[in-house]
Design brief:
Helix content is about 40%, strand content about 10%. With about 600 residues, the chain is an alpha/beta fold. The protein has a domain of about 70 residues. The chain is globular, with a radius of gyration of 25 Å.
């Protein structure tokens, strides 16, 4: 074996200098483009109603020296407008004020208040084109149209009113391609914030302009009470009658604590972990698609066989079918826009939605194993990708898109739309969260002035919460060893995004009729389904305990997850699926 070449300190110093120079060069290039005006697509500034330039903040930059723009990894970076330093300073001063607890009905949200249907906050639609249109002409039309679209928005709303929304035309192009090629659209939303993730403009465009069916997937149902899940379904049915609604959640082969058991077992045997993925809601999604394509030349029997084999626990290694799709007369089915439906007898299902709602996880759950990459960071999926679920079913994963709206920016951070690592003012997000849930009680924090005030008139600020959480978790700054409140604030935000801190928004009128929704007949059906999932978990734990893995090792692995196997259903009595979620702790993930 060849001997390794020594790497001296001088060489290391030179390497670090070159790296800093490349980073500075990229930063200068961004600043040069940001200083211009009139073109958002190039990362430049746009004139707003207040007369000040809106600077675009380009997020998730990757090192790249590729001359070809088509191969540039930064081509699909998130483009959000950047908050000014003056506005940030004002928000930080507001975080020094005492927090006020809001009533429970403050969590009630209405879609009309967020998106203002019929206004300039609309969906950018692809300009008309034909097969005879050249690529250069089409791209020029798209650039000009998108610029006018942004100008119309900023002519009515200023940066303080608007929420963060995607300003990168390349990402919108991915949505246009997916909507054009799909036969059925899946709009995936997070059950904690479904009104935030549902764009009425997209619904109208798909169902009215493109005349295609849309299925609303209420994902991550393990993170909300079942009564609230059913209430949101009823809300969407009343306001958007063309929707078909499906509940869904995907999870690893075992729950969080059982994943530790499985991991310890597989590591001892030298096996890979986390290969298989299960899902709740696959059958309901299959039945919804069967109803939509009934009478068409599409055979979904292979998909049904796959779902049934997964439900009975048959190990088929969750292989993706790669055989050629059969040809059929479906090629003659065309819609008004010229799209050929069910081409070659294949059903194409497009998955669209906001970042971090679980589109890629949904595809992995349907397939039964990891076939597309997932991440907790918004904007991880850069380009639309397709995978054949069966020879007659093709899934298309679209990058997450943030539509223009009027919600508060801290909520976008808490909903996982804006990357936590890029948040410049996490304390306003903590204030927003603490005013809506009892954060100090959940985190078991002690007020810094509790001894002097003897438990009377203990008022918290956002900085107090971050300071006490930093002390509790041992987060200290490198210099001075003072409590690292910035790190503590980011940790709380990440726990909220992951679902370990529950911030669930509700439909209008839910607070008054909460008990009625809790006793809804459909809740009983979901409870029975969840109980069957729990029984499946227990069988997996029993299998691990009866295998060649030492019982003490299994129990110690469960203890490391802060939960015993037999305590799975105690996380949330109102939702059996809550066994799929993690536990609260100071350890950063």
């Amino acid at each position: 074996m060849p001997r390794k070449v020594a790497f001296s300190v001088k060489q290391k110093k030179k390497q670090l200098q070159e790296r800093r120079q490349r980073k500075q060069a990229r930063s200068n290039a961004d600043n040069d483009t940001d200083s211009d005006s009139g073109d958002v697509q190039g990362g430049r500034a746009v004139e707003g109603t207040a007369g000040s330039a809106i600077t675009v903040n380009k997020i998730n930059q990757q090192p790249s020296d590729v001359p070809d723009r088509r191969l540039d990894p930064n081509r699909f970076r998130l483009h959000f407008f950047k908050m000014s330093d003056k506005e940030l300073e004002k928000k930080r001063e507001e975080c020094l004020r005492f927090l006020t607890s809001l009533p429970e009905n403050a969590l009630e949200t209405d879609i009309d208040d967020i998106y203002k249907p019929g206004t300039v906050l609309d969906l950018p639609k692809r300009p008309a084109w034909t097969s005879a249109t050249s690529k250069q002409v089409l791209e020029q039309r798209e650039d000009e149209y998108f610029q006018r679209y942004l100008d119309n928005i900023f002519a009515v709303y200023g940066p303080r009113e608007l929420s963060f929304f995607e300003m990168n035309l390349e990402t919108w192009r991915q949505l246009w391609r997916v909507t054009e090629m799909s036969d059925i659209m899946l709009l995936v939303t997070d059950i904690r914030h479904p009104a935030l993730h549902f764009s009425p403009a997209l619904y109208d465009h798909v169902t009215r302009d493109l005349n295609k069916p849309m299925i609303l997937v209420l994902n991550k149902v393990d993170l909300a009470p079942l009564g609230l899940v059913v209430a949101w379904k009823d809300y969407f049915h009343k306001h958007f009658p063309k929707l078909r609604i499906v509940f869904f959640t995907s999870y690893a082969e075992a729950s969080s604590h059982q994943g530790s058991l499985q991991q310890s077992k597989c590591l001892n045997k030298g096996h890979k972990t986390g290969r298989r993925i299960k899902s709740v809601g696959s059958r309901e999604l299959l039945e919804a698609c069967e109803n939509l394509v009934e009478g068409k030349a599409v055979d979904l029997s292979s998909w049904r066989s796959k779902v049934e084999s997964q439900e009975v626990g048959k190990d088929e290694d969750a292989d993706v079918d790669t055989s050629e799709a059969p040809t059929s007369a479906a090629e003659t089915l065309t819609d008004d826009s010229g799209h050929v439906r069910y081409r070659d007898g294949v059903l194409t299902i497009g998955c669209v939605g906001y970042p971090n709602v679980g589109k890629s996880s949904l595809i992995n759950g349907l397939v039964g194993k990891k076939v597309v990459s997932v991440s907790k960071t918004p904007g991880h999926t850069k380009h639309f990708q397709t995978i054949f679920l069966t020879p007659t079913v093709k899934l298309c994963d679209c990058p997450g898109l943030v539509f223009p709206s009027l919600i508060e920016k801290p909520l976008q951070v808490l909903a996982g739309i804006f990357p936590v690592a890029h948040v410049r003012d996490p304390y306003s997000c903590i204030a927003y969260l603490a005013s809506r849930i009892n954060l100090t009680l959940i985190l078991k924090l002690t007020h810094p002035k509790a001894d002097r005030l003897n438990g009377k008139d203990l008022k918290w600020t956002a900085y107090d919460i971050c300071n006490e959480w930093a002390v509790k978790c041992g987060y200290n700054t490198a210099r001075g060893a003072r409590p690292d409140i910035y790190r503590a604030a980011n940790h709380i935000l990440r726990m909220t995004v992951e679902g370990r801190l529950r911030l669930n928004f509700t439909p209008p009128g839910y607070t008054e009729s909460k008990e009625a929704w809790r006793d809804h007949p459909e809740v009983i059906v979901l409870l029975k389904r969840g109980q069957s999932v729990i029984r499946g978990y227990r069988r997996e734990v029993d299998t691990l305990l009866s295998s060649d893995t030492d019982e003490e090792e299994v129990m110690s692995s469960a203890a490391s997850a802060n939960q015993k196997p037999e305590e799975a259903e105690t996380l949330d009595d109102s939702n059996p699926f809550s066994t799929l979620s993690g536990d609260l702790g100071c350890e950063e993930t």
